[in-house]
Amino acid sequence: MHKFYDNHLQEDRTEELLYPAYAKRAMVEAVPKYRLPQKGMPPEVAAQIIRDELMLEGNPRLNLATFVTTWMEKEARELIAETFDKNLIDKDEYPKTAEIEKRCVRMIARLFHGSDNEKPVGTSTVGSSEAIMLAGLAMKWNWKKRQKNSGRSFDKPNLVMGTNVQVVWEKFCRYFEVEPRFIPVVAGSYVTNPEKVVSYLDDNTIGVVAILGTTYSGEFEPIEQIHDAIKDFCFTQGIKIPLHIDAASGGFVAPFIHPELKWDFQLPLVESINVSGHKYGLVYPGVGWAIWRTESSLPEELIFKVNYLGGELPTFSLNFSRPGSQVIAQYYNFLRLGKEGYIQILKSMQSISLHLAEKIESLRIFEMISRGKDIPVICFKLKTEEPFSLFDLSHRLREKGWQVPAYFMPPEAQNIAVMRIVIREGFSRDMADVLFHDIKTAVEELRTQTRSRQPKKSLRFIH
Ligand SMILES: *Cc1c(COP(=O)(O)O)cnc(C)c1O
Question: Which domain of life is it from (predicted)?
Answer without folding.
Answer: Bacteria
